[in-house]
Amino acid sequence: MKTITSPLDQKVIDNLVAGDTVALSGQIYTARDQAHKRLIEALSENRPLPVELMGQTIFYAGPAPTPAGAVTGSIGPTTASRMDKFTPALLEYGVKAMIGKGPRSIEVIESMKAEGAVYFVATGGAAAYLSDFVRKSEVVAFGDLGPEAIHLLEVENFPLVVGIDANGRSALWPDIS
Amino acid sequence: MVAKDVPVSNVIELVANLSLDANHNARADVSALLRKARESKNSPAAMAALDHLIANIEIAKERSLPLCQDCGYVTVFAEVGQDLVFDDPLEPAIQLGVARGYDDGDLRQSVIRDAFSDRTKFETERPANVYINLKSGSELKITVMPKGGGSDNACRMTMLKPTAHEDEIVKYVVDIVAASGHYACPPLFVGIGIGGSFDSVGLLAKVALLRDFQIPAKRPDLAALENRLMTEINKLGIGPAGLGGETTALGVSVLTDRTHMACLPVAVNISCNQLRGATARLSI
């Protein structure tokens, strides 16, 4: 198991291999369908993003409400492929890592190779377990979207698998190599 | 027949508790089959995913957290004894029970107002699909079944030719799992409906998911079909979390129905690894 910290250094990303299990600490931003739509609109209109995502990690997630006294509600990955059409533009902008579940499109993989980005898989269906690795959660943009708002999370040893590495190798079925 | 009075407040409380139970506590068969899957051959990363899912069940129960952040679109099946007389309409009481459970339990509300033109969430309602079936007697049996959007997106139905061979049914089901099962949080539970009409076969496939997956179908022909489908689906190699291995499905359940002589409806309801549901009876 490799221990890594987000934001991720390019050297660290380059050394990750599809199938590696990793424990991720540091800061990550949640964003799913509606947040992606707004981020891409901002980029296409040359407006500043509401949070700086250069070099950052995006987690495709919409947490359950936070119970009283807890840091976060259950939080797990949503289907990454729904974000595929938005992803190349975000990687060109400078996003370095993504966390989700399920396969990605060829266009996304080509863009990951070109930009040196990595896609991690979190276990879909393990949201209560995953919430145990979140130390802080704060809504930092698009609060009107509720669970789809952008949350800044601080995580410690968040358990992930390298789904697709920066060389385009994949640990995900079907075998694309 | 003696009419028996039931205050709907009892129904609201029952449904609220079932909503919490279904989200916090894994079904016994789901829990047992996930543990058993550790004996199968899967990639190291997929084995880690299985361990996460087993730990998830324990943490959700201990801390009263939802098993999945997607607390789903809820379906409620109510079997209502005809001798029961409710002091207020039953269906709104069931809806109130779901809303109470979801609000009290910090369960994520994912239902939007209109699929075509208003994709905003409801303020206070937590609408569910409610199916009410009348039975004889004076028992009320309610099942609350939440299902996530990711796995519902993987479901399909078709109208095969009435002369289709069993092989075509198997091919249809396996092709669907191959095309979309890896998006739906495997290892999967697969509910299959065969028969009825276009509208009813989808419901049949969903009801198939209510069965205890540790127990094979009673009818030998269906048990054989289920075995064949399990083998074919697990040959795909998708594995837990889509990371490769022989545990792609944890169970297959088939229900059949009569149909029109010109028809052979088939529906496939794919559930994620967190197949959820809770049932309770109220005897008056």
Number of helices of chain B: 8
Largest interface (C-beta under 8 Å): A-B, 41 and 42 residues
Written as H for each helix and E for each strand, in order along the chain, the element string of chain A is EHEHEHEHEHEE
CATH class of chain A: Alpha Beta
Strand content of chain B: 25-35%
- Overall morphology of chain B: globular
Poorly predicted regions of chain A? none
Distance between the termini of chain B: 14 Å
Return the domain count of chain A.
1
Overall SS class of chain B: alpha/beta
Give the oligomer, counting copies of the same chain as homo and different chains as hetero: heterodimer
Distance between the termini of chain A: 24 Å
Classification by helices and strands of chain A = alpha/beta
* Unreliable parts of chain B: none
Q: How much is the average pLDDT of chain B?
A: 96
- The CATH topology of chain A is what? fumarase
CATH level-1 class of the largest domain in chain B: Alpha Beta
Overall morphology of chain A? globular
- CATH architecture annotation of the largest domain in chain B: 2-Layer Sandwich
What does this structure look like?
The complex is a heterodimer of chains A (177) and B (284). In chain A, α2 crosses α3 (87-93) and α3 (87-93) runs parallel beside α4. Chain A is α/β, with parallel strands linked by helices and 177 residues long. The radius of gyration of chain A is 15 Å and the shape is globular. Chain A has one domain (2-164): Fe-S hydro-lyase, tartrate dehydratase beta-type, catalytic domain (fumarase, Alpha-Beta Barrel), CATH 3.20.130.10. Chain A has helices at residues 10-15, 33-44, 87-93, 106-115, 127-131, and strands at residues 2-6, 21-30, 57-59, 97-100, 118-121, 134-141, 150-164. Chain B has 8 helices and 12 strands. With 284 residues, chain B is α/β, with parallel strands linked by helices. Helices cover 38% and strands 27% of the residues of chain B. In chain B, β4 and β5 form a beta hairpin. In chain B, strands 6-2-7-12 form a 4-stranded mixed sheet. A 4-stranded mixed sheet of chain B has the order 8-11-9-10, with helices on both faces. Chain B has a two-stranded parallel sheet with strand order 1-3. Chain B has helices spanning 8-24, 28-36, 44-63, 90-104, 149-152, 166-180, 198-208, 220-235; strands spanning 4-6, 73-81, 84-86, 112-114, 118-121, 129-135, 139-147, 156-160, 188-196, 249-259, 264-271, 278-283. Chain A binds chain B through residues 19, 21, 61-67, 70, 73-76, 78-79, 81, 101-103, 121, 123-132, 146-147, 159, 161, 163, 171-175, and chain B through 43-45, 48-49, 52-53, 55-56, 59-60, 63-71, 106-108, 110, 121, 150, 153, 182-183, 185, 236-244, 272-274.
